């Protein structure tokens, strides 16, 4: 598996943007991107945004942000439900031999 895709939850702090959660979205860019495309939020990010969702591609351990949205706390709750629902559908449809965990440790 060369490339992996993640959806990361970020929080703006006085020290900068901190990742507070990370969902493994698989190794298929189109599928992971389709999940990210269902999320609520605003792509017109400015200094007022505190919560963020990032669509990240990792290749050989190096992350690249592909997309980012800002969201409210209410939208974040809905987005987490959407992500988990979509990942549940994905993993429940795969055979056990096709399921794989990400190479890196995800909390």
Walk me through this protein's architecture.
It is a single chain. The longest helix is centred in the C-terminal third of the chain and has 21 residues, at 73-93. The protein is globular, with a radius of gyration of 14 Å. Strands 2-1-3-4 form a 4-stranded antiparallel beta sheet. The chain contains 2 helices and 4 strands; from the N terminus they run ββαββα. The chain has one domain. The two termini are 20 Å apart. By secondary structure, the protein is an alpha+beta fold. The mean pLDDT is 88.
Tell me, briefly, the overall form.
Answer: globular
Poorly predicted ranges: none
Tally of structural domains: 1
Number of strands: 4
Output the radius of gyration. 14 Å
- Pairing-aware structural class of the strands and helices? alpha+beta
**Order of helices and strands, N to C?**
EEHEEH
Q: Could you describe the largest sheet, including whether it forms a barrel?
A: 4 strands, antiparallel
Write a concise synopsis of the structure shown:
28% of the residues lie in helices and 38% in strands. It has 107 residues and is an alpha+beta fold. The two termini are 20 Å apart.
Main attributes?
alpha+beta, 107 residues
What's the layout of helices and strands?
Layout: E1 3-13, E2 16-26, H1 29-37, E3 51-59, E4 62-71, H2 73-93
